[in-house]
Fold this sequence. Notes:
The protein is mainly α. The chain has a single domain, classed as Serine Threonine Protein Phosphatase 5, Tetratricopeptide repeat (Alpha Horseshoe), CATH 1.25.40.340. It has eight helices and no strands. Helix 2 (about 25-40) packs across helix 3 (about 45-60), helix 5 (about 90-105) packs antiparallel against helix 6 (about 115-125) and helix 6 (about 115-125) crosses helix 8 (about 175-190). The two termini are about 15 Å apart. The model has no long low-confidence stretch (mean pLDDT about 95).
Amino acid sequence: MASKMESCADELNSLDNQIGDGDIGITMVTGFRAMLEVSAELPDDVGMALMKCAQAFTGTRASSFATLFATGIMAAAKEVKGKKEVAWQQLPQILEQSIEKMAQRGKSKLGDKTVLDELAAIQKALVGIEDTDALLEAADLATVKALDEFRGLQCKQGRARIYGNKTVGIDDPGMVVIRRLVEGLKESRG
Length: 190
């Protein structure tokens, strides 16, 4: 996923520049670089490892998206704390907790055309799927459908809300981040 963020940073910044402050790609690249830097030191406890990743991510940039993204990672960390292994099939429950905490932190809700909508689409698509490749395919398809569904709507949160109707027809940058991360996961499984 870190490699995917490196390769699509310019795309993300350009998209964010249309309805935001134009730095979401930079935020993701620096955040993932920071997580890679601590990766050799991560504990066996998946929850504690995710917590260290969240701390590394937020330590790189003072950005609302970085805070929101790290909040999602911290919620996931709490969900899997004490576990040395987490099955892919647990992702729906983990995502549910992340979405809830991110919504609280960002004072947003589903339907506002935000990263939450992309994550919720994935969460719903993964319920009941046990095969890892099928999970990735379902997540991939869900991200495409969510972007298509929300593209024609107005952004109601963050800096993008200021642009009002100008956001109609433009993908939310946070939603695209999740889309690219899912692509990165698929690519890594080859």
